[in-house]
Amino acid sequence: MSHYLLAVAVIAGANLLPAFAPPTWSILVFFTLRHHMNPVALVLLGVLSATLGRAILANVFRAIRGWLPKGYVANMERIGAKIEENPRRAFGLLTLFFLSPISSAQLFEAAGIIKRIALGPILLAFAGGRLISYSIYVSGASVLKETSLGQIIQKEFTSPIAILIQVLLIVGLVALGNVKWNGTKK
Asked: Would you give the end-to-end CA distance of the chain in angstroms?
C-alpha cells in the first residue's frame, strides 16, 4: 500500500510543477516495473493524481492572475471569449486537452489565467485522454526495465530536447497573452 501512496504523491507533485516535470507516464512505468504494482490500479490512481495536480496548478494560476500584467490577463480573457463564442473552438479546446501528447502544464496555466474557461470539462477531457495514454504506456512498460526514477527525472532536466520543449511552451504561454486579440462578437 505504501508504494501506491508514494506513487500518488510523486504523480500529483509532478503535475503541480509549472514546467520541467518528468512525464507522468514515465513515473507510472517506473512504479509498475520497480514495485510490481497492479497496472490497472496504478493507471487509475495515476489519472486521478495527475488530474488533481493539474487542477491545483490551474487554480494557483487563477489565484495569481492579479499579480500578472493587466494587459496580459486582458489578452488571455479575449482568447477565452473567442473560444466561448464558437462551439467548435470550445470542442477544439477540449480535444486539445484530451489528445495533447506534449506537456500539459502550460495548457492548464493558460486555462487557469482565463477565468471564463470552466476547468471541469477540461479536467474531464484531460483525465479521459490520460486514461488511454497511461494504459498504453504501462502496458508496454517492459521497455524501461533498467531505468530508475532518478534517471527519468535527470533526463527531464538534462535532455536538450526536453528543455527546449519546456522553454518553447513557456515562451508560447507568455506570447499568447501578449497578442492583442480582436474583440468578441456582441
From this structure: 55
**What does the alpha-carbon distance between residue 91 and residue 69 come to, in Å, rounded to a whole number?**
29
Q: Which DSSP state fits 17?
A: S
pTM of the prediction? 0.80
All cell numbers assigned to 42: 496504478
Note whether 93 and 83 are within 8 A (CB). Answer: yes
Separation CA 130–CA 47 (nearest Å): 6
Q: Please tell me the distance from the alpha carbon of residue 121 to that of residue 125, in angstroms, as a whole number.
A: 6
| Cell output for 84 | 466561448
Count CB-CB contacts under 10 A for residue 81.
17
pLDDT in tens for each of the 186 residues of the chain?
Answer: 699 999 999 999 999 999 989 899 989 988 988 888 888 999 999 999 999 999 999 999 999 999 999 999 999 999 999 998 988 988 888 888 887 766 789 999 999 999 999 999 999 999 999 999 898 888 877 555 555 656 666 666 667 776 777 788 788 778 777 777 675 454
Domains of the chain by residue range: 2-178
Please tell me what DSSP assigns to residue 182.
P
